[in-house]
Design goal:
Elements (H helix, E strand, L loop, with lengths): L7 E9 L4 E2 L7 E7 L4 E5 L9 E3 L4 E5 L7 E5 L4 E9 L7
Antiparallel strand pairs: 1-8, 2-7, 3-6, 3-8, 4-5, 4-7
Length: 98
Amino acid sequence: MPFVNKNKSYSFNMTIGTSLTQLSGFTASEVLISNKTGQDLYLYDNDNFTDDRRFLIKNSESIVLRGITNTEEVSAKTGASSGTVYFRSAYFSNLNQF
């Protein structure tokens, strides 16, 4: 049987505004998030939507969130207006398929 590579990665971008927005859903074990909104970006994960549990990403900064199973587990919002956020999801499986 041939080797099947189950590792998958997807790049996408979304316009994020001041309302909490769930990321597009891709199977992923991690997601790289690059803030290009021109303002602060707030990230929430695992249904934790309180301000004391958010990540603050300044403009032009990036973060990698690991330990997820789907990018839709992450939500984001900005502080003042809409802007574009760039994402690169990655799914890494240690289970080689033969």
